[in-house]
Known about the structure:
It is built from 16 helices and 21 strands. The protein has 507 residues and is of the alpha/beta class.
Amino acid sequence: xxxxxxxxxxxxxxxxxxxxxxxxxxxxxxxxxxxxxxxxxxxxxxxxxxxxxxxxxxxxxxxxxxxxxxxxxxxxxxxxxxxxxxxxxxxxxxxxxxxxxxxxxxxxxxxxxxxxxxxxxxxxxxxxxxxxxxxxxxxxxxxxxxxxxxxxxxxxxxxxxxxxxxxxxxxxxxxxxxxxxxxxxxxxxxxxxxxxxxxxxxxxxxxxxxxxxxxxxxxxxxxxxxxxxxxxxxxxxxxxxxxxxxxxxxxxxxxxxxxxxxxxxxxxxxxxxxxxxxxxxxxxxxxxxxxxxxxxxxxxxxxxxxxxxxxxxxxxxxxxxxxxxxxxxxxxxxxxxxxxxxxxxxxxxxxxxxxxxxxxxxxxxxxxxxxxxxxxxxxxxxxxxxxxxxxxxxxxxxxxxxxxxxxxxxxxxxxxxxxxxxxxxxxxxxxxxxxxxxxxxxxxxxxxxxxxxxxxxxxxxxxxxxxxxxxxxxxxxxxxxxxxxxxxxxxxxxxxxxxxxxxxxxx
Length: 507
């Protein structure tokens, strides 16, 4: 009780700073931008781009081009080899290994001391501060956290220390914080997911776990394994004091029915975060899910590009104070980790500008626009949710891609959907899904009109376990790995299709 009270008192003191940053976001962002340029002006990157001559945002826009990971990699590679003062002052020891869905090649994101303390760790503290505000009677700190992590290792070519961002955070946290988490590092960092899963559950089922943190799909595997080993039906029978799941990386709505089934308690709470390898950017600050508060005082300067301009040779980015509600933006960041005008690859829409709240809509490379339909992940998931609701279905995973018909130049979307509970009427599911997409996306509706350009979607019902098998084949189980939802080419869907010859739902 004493520890819980002390930690809560500390976290409550942070709430005032969170509110200040939310109320004065443009001013705070200007301060962050100035500090980043000051810190970076004597680096190799700062000298290349003449940071000392930048006096305004317009100068910054002109002198520093927006970059993808591939374009920034020559600087990152020099940093990994131990060179000092390349992207950020000093030597960088740690790199977050990102195995995202857009590229099979791993990305290595520099993690500096400043980005650890003023971004990642601050974000973790603020999540718990916000939870304390909503639920002041909680007893989180009387027990332990169970955080899913990847592994850490030394890169052979450069000798740099690398790992999933969650593992990097745990490896660098103060020693005393390990008393509040489980399992031990030798289990948490196991690289083989199946070995880790069994050992992790065996090591934690007798602990007093009060909150969880991780990617929903992989955490669900942990909970199901805990039920399997113990023979219980309800996770509260394993961990009676469990009360919070901090989740991120993928949209939670498709997984909500699974969690509700195995944790059927009204006092189980869920908080969404936007915590990536590149930084910690957003926290659900309201009790109701659906949007997150942009965290503006984390040593991250934000810019935004309307997604309908991404095809331009030089798309124009705008600062935070110029964003508009309802516009789909690609996010660009400059950070205390040494990322300068870096296109992170995520897209979002703002639902409020006082304060700045948003929801993630997808990825710049995760969409389908083969026929001019501009289908984004948020459209797909809202339509799937409605089809599930009306046909009592529950989805595990899905992916989709375009299919072109050679005979007349038309095509359709192919969907592979793995259900844990199949729709009562598959035909109705497909029709509801298609109609809901039309209602949500006018471009999709226009292309579907009279089947002239885009025909009715082909939907395949995959056997349970299909996506896990596919991810395992690709060496992408556990940690921050995610199933690619939408793709504008057939790379992923053709690979998954080899696992089983399905017949589409007939209409």
